[in-house]
């Protein structure tokens, strides 16, 4: 019998969808698609104090923008509380979990004493039942937590899909809290029986959702032994784990909110295309030979969980911009026009999404890394630029002014097409025995406010004639 491959991404809605999470979502998605399996979205919202609806929406929107479609979900852990309570009760009955009445003050004291003795700190198992052991009397007025009775010795080993074999001794880890009493957040009857902690809820969910492969950030490596032990205590099949290294910022430190944008939506706003983001993110921890640019279909075809990088990748804004530029070049002009219209709208500039806008995108897209840059070009058509006095003095010289005036005159009546404008330019050059740059530079400067543009006839023909005449009036 072959098992269906099932993967998931399980973001916590305590902030936006982080780039690192987007990358593991991509790997999980591609792995499931590669094997004809299923990809699931689960929202891990048990951190009630920090989870927000706004983050949930941003996560869903980012997934949609990236095109990472899921077959099941979004599931919400806070809607599954009854199930966690049921499993906790089974574990208590089986002796693999137990109540612990330690107060925070007691735990602090325990830690201090361990430190003073030079021991490793951790829960000392004082409420853990054992044959012949007499447990303390539960204190009045304290709500207990439930702890997992972690195996006291032995080694947990797994063959990580990314990092290879990993072993962690059970002596390194203590009896983890799996259920905490709810605070007084007014979360309803289900919550009053307690809120599961991450390491427990994740196991129950991955078990119930028949997840076969878990890709996630390597900050979770130290949690994995607990999780594997819980699977075993439940008699559940342990999925395969692949822990991806963190992404470093271009300063070599962990990519974080304080160091540049790390949310997927910020890149959408900054004019990146989702397929470029996916392509770039994919390459940040995985490779297929020397291929730098590939489609999503190619990635699905190639991504089999091998060739994953073991060490952290560095975020490289210049490389991302290069990848994005390649995708913008290939992008459909009508699509770009829609994106540029949105970018301009953000700036309060309303433009019609018409054939002219499409033609402007086609003309300028080859020189843009983002749709923000493309919008900068298009905006030239809508707001008259102000050339600096210096540049004006440099390019709009006395020698060229007669030719500029003559050109303006020709432009009042020529065919208003690229060829018509080209002919007007040519005739003016011949008449004034000038070379193209001598005339094209001041025309660009006066009309566009800059001297570097695509071919000037193409640029001018996309203006309304009156606008060009008005910008050339003042010479
Ligand atoms: N909610 C966890 C996180 O966002 C999920 C980790 C996991 O994939 O197991 O880090």
Please explain how this structure is put together.
With 475 residues, this protein is of the alpha/beta class. The protein folds into four domains: 6-79 and 246-314, HUPs (Rossmann fold, 3-Layer(aba) Sandwich), CATH 3.40.50; 81-244, Rossmann fold (3-Layer(aba) Sandwich), CATH 3.40.50; 331-379, Helicase, Ruva Protein, domain 3 (Orthogonal Bundle), CATH 1.10.8; 389-471, Orthogonal Bundle (Arc Repressor Mutant, subunit A). Helix content is 45%, strand content 12%. The chain has 20 helices and 13 strands. The protein has helices spanning 19-34, 53-66, 81-94, 104-116, 189-192, 198-208, 224-234, 264-269, 274-283, 296-302, 317-330, 333-346, 355-364, 371-379, 389-395, 401-413, 418-431, 436-448, 456-461, 465-471, and strands spanning 6-9, 38-43, 72-76, 97-100, 145-148, 155-160, 164-169, 177-180, 195-196, 213-217, 240-244, 247-248, 313-314. It has a four-stranded antiparallel β-sheet with strand order 4-5-8-9. α6 (198-208) crosses α7 and α9 (274-283) crosses α11 (317-330). It is elongated and about 110 Å long. The termini are far apart. The model has no long low-confidence stretch (mean pLDDT 95). Bound molecules: glutamic acid (GLU). Glutamic acid (GLU) binds next to loops.
Main β-sheet description: 4 strands, antiparallel
CATH architecture field of the largest domain: 3-Layer(aba) Sandwich
Q: Which homologous superfamily in CATH is the superfamily of the largest domain?
A: HUPs
Helix content: 40-55%
**What fold name stands as the CATH topology of the largest domain?**
Rossmann fold
What does the overall shape look like?
elongated
Low-confidence stretches: none
Alpha-carbon Rg, integer: 31 Å
Q: How many angstroms separate the termini?
A: 82 Å
Strand order of the largest sheet: 4-5-8-9
Report the count of strand segments: 13
Query: How many distinct helices?
Result: 20
CATH class of the largest domain: Alpha Beta
- The secondary-structure class comes to alpha/beta
Strand content: 5-15%
Number of domains: 4
Hetero groups: glutamic acid
Mean pLDDT: 95
